[in-house]
Amino acid sequence: MGVPVRRFDAVIVGGGGAGLRAALQLSEAGLKTAVLSKVFPTRSHTVAAQGGISASLGNVQEDHWQWHMYDTVKGSDWLGDQDAIEFMCRTAPDAVVELEHFGMPFDRLENGKIYQRPFGGHTQHNGKTPVQRACAAADRTGHAMLHTLYQRNVRANTQFFVEWMALDLIRDAEGDVVGVTALEMETGEIYVLHAKAVLFATGGAGRIYAASTNAFINTGDGLGMCVRAGLPLEDMEFWQFHPTGVAGAGVLITEGVRGEGGILLNANGERFMERYAPNLKDLAPRDFVSRSMELEVLEGRGCGPHKDHVLLKLDHLGPDIINQRLPGIREIAIKFAGVDPIKEPIPVIPTCHYMMGGIPTNYRGEVVAPKGDDPEVRVNGFYAAGECACASVHGANRLGTNSLLDLVVFGKSAGDSMIKYIREEMPTWKDLPADAADRSLARVARLDGQTGGEEVADVRAAMQRTVQSRAGVFRNDANLKLGVDEIAQVADRARLLQIKDKSKVFNTARVEALELENLVEVAVATLVAAEARKESRGAHAHDDYPKRDDDNWMKHSLFFGSDRSLRYKPVHTKPLSVDYIPPKERTF
Amino acid sequence: MKKMRFSIYRYNPETDAKPYMQDYEVEIGPKDIKLLDVLTKLKAMDDTLSFRRSCREGICGSDGMNINGKNGLACLTDVASLSEPVALRPLPGLPIVRDLIVDMTQFFKQYHSIKPYVVNNTPAPERERLQSPEDRKELDGLYECILCACCSTSCPSFWWNPDKFVGPAGLLAAYRFIADTRDEITSERLDNLEDPYRLFRCHTIMNCVDVCPKHLNPTRAIGKIKDLMVKRAV
């Protein structure tokens, strides 16, 4: 086939925080780098992060990276890999200072240092008292960070391929990654991008749920590409429900609201988190708060005519704090909940927000997969960072503000690993396989040829209904088993997707169909992995197995799409320089 | 259920000799609150209808369009506030790729032309550069821009000279870096704008202020740049 080939040292798929941070590293090293993004980079979903980025700067109170590490391990419910967690928390202060030097407009304290606010699960002395660790730019920290990283890339002359959607990963006969295929949306043309190293920074896939804080573009494209290329996905049963999505609309209200002093109330006007988490109260980690909220609703103490949500009260903070620290939230509440939080509480419900699982990597950003007896053999030429990757720093539950940190820390470390790999191991390009573009061409040709098949909107709705109802905040055996069957049917229907628009120029119907194929891979992985895990850990709360079971289940799941099978690999219990943090009961 | 009428600009360069307005009638359910909700519904009915969208909460800047004659974001526009038939057109003044999708190359070129990044050649300290809360406050109302282009594409000066006039979005960004105490090249930035077109084509028509979905004020920022130019001239 005459598919045009373009050649680069490195190809980065995704122009959000992780992709842009990695791009900066590669561009400044003088490597020929292409950054592909489905949307103009500043439209990537990093832009929607609100509350902050964590680092133990200690600008307000005493803080240490070891405390940050402890909180992250405990937050992860001991599923996080302690080497990766140490790496992230130890690097955090430098990563945040670097962003400041790049020009990020952080809020400031009176002494001119970066402003830090309290956040869920952030503590001093390993869980004793809350600490102000979240470095913030009002409640637009993600926007400030993403624009700053984009701006820095403009300065570095990074080459962007805007509105290009990667379609498939290209691996050669040895399994090494040698490039990607991609669709230029404006022309409808398909290209092969030949590279010495490929980074996936494709973000999350929250759109598998019916109610999600995620953008339309969060369709798990990197994960779909991995499954089709025979690579596993790790810990896909763990999805974070953010406690405060606007009821009905799904739009995010930052945990920073509670960091600034906001509280959750049930129908009786009771601050119920005092009952569930006597120490951290409303600032317990997200999985914990979401379950508590759900229990309040299940036990009949929900608010509103349908008793289906709780209230987030912040009027007691006063207009000054709200306008200065939470202006975006006020705007969102007025626009999407119809209430002005200066006067009234915001109706909120736990809403799907973040994918803890993803493409298995180590803390250097290298993608790893089992080979023989070794569960973690490097896949040559392949890297992943950010929400699409599973390093795993978030384990079974991510702490708020660790996501933005993850993006810059692992974006940079993946970039460094790629530079080293390209310079030391890749004097020239490996050959492209003869069939490099075949899978992508076949997918697009099938869509162009299909008539009388399944409507994209219908299949997407069926998938979202299934995942929402079978893999929610609380799970049980019977429901998960049904979910596995139902999602298999959805996957069958997804093979017959049809679009009426057969044109080439900016065909968004085609893009949505290709995205849905990726989402369905993620949804299948989620249900299969969730059904198999017979314990409760972090965000995976199982009614039939309500306790964490470290003897049998302190291990990462690996999902393989070819036969929908699971394998497991051990959690990394050896940090890089400090002592192992052994499992404890998780109370707050 | 209430029905609403829409009239939407359609153009597919592969099949259409020229653009036309297509009428749609759609039932508005209880969940169809924002214009983007309705567009998503229309897309499920007619998958050839093309528009950009992503975050659906007014922070990514993808879904700027001309709504009943005024630029705005579909995701922040209440359907109930619109008079019928609701006329939807692409952002004015930019080349049209297809339907409501415009080619934003010129818009971003102008944004890039103002060096949209902090330049500070003093060796960086170990820790953060200090900035007082008052100095940081100078950036409020500037850094929040989402590059949706609603402002620049509502500006007659930008329509006439998109290649020469930086436009409200780019000039707002220019002042964002001038106002940043960490940036060291104010005078170079002013030189870069001292030109009959780049800055001075702004005739304070203030359409930009009127349409900005983030309630920013590019005209005020432009005025401040002009003040600085006057100040350094005397």
UniProtKB/TrEMBL annotation, chain A:
Keywords from the named record: Cell inner membrane, Cell membrane, Electron transport, FAD, Flavoprotein, Membrane, Oxidoreductase, Transport, Tricarboxylic acid cycle
The chain positions of domain FAD-dependent oxidoreductase 2 FAD-binding read: 9-404
For this protein, what reaction is catalysed?
a quinone + succinate = fumarate + a quinol
- Set out the biological process GO terms recorded for this chain's protein: anaerobic respiration; electron transport chain; tricarboxylic acid cycle
Tele-8alpha-FAD histidine occurs at which residues?
Answer: 45
Positions of substrate binding: 242, 254, 353, 398
Record has Lipid biosynthesis as a keyword: no
Q: What is its EC number?
A: 1.3.5.1
Any note on cofactor binding?
Flavinylated by SdhE, about 5% flavinylation occurs in the absence of SdhE.
State the needed cofactors, names only: FAD
- Does Flavoprotein show up as a keyword for this record? yes
Similarity-based family: Belongs to the FAD-dependent oxidoreductase 2 family. FRD/SDH subfamily.
Q: What is this protein called?
A: Succinate dehydrogenase flavoprotein subunit
Q: Which organism is it from?
A: Paludibacterium purpuratum
UniProtKB/TrEMBL annotation, chain B:
Q: What class of enzyme is it?
A: oxidoreductase
Enumerate the PROSITE patterns for this protein.
Answer: 2FE2S_FER_2, 4FE4S_FER_1, 4FE4S_FER_2
Entry annotated with the keyword Iron-sulfur: yes
Look up the record and name the pathway of this protein. Carbohydrate metabolism; tricarboxylic acid cycle; fumarate from succinate (bacterial route): step 1/1
Q: Which residues form the 2Fe-2S ferredoxin-type domain?
A: 4-94
- Gene Ontology annotations of biological process type: respiratory electron transport chain; tricarboxylic acid cycle
Name the Pfam families on file: Fer2_3, Fer4_17
Tell me the protein family, please: Belongs to the succinate dehydrogenase/fumarate reductase iron-sulfur protein family.
Q: What is this protein called?
A: Succinate dehydrogenase iron-sulfur subunit
Species whose genome carries this gene: Paludibacterium purpuratum
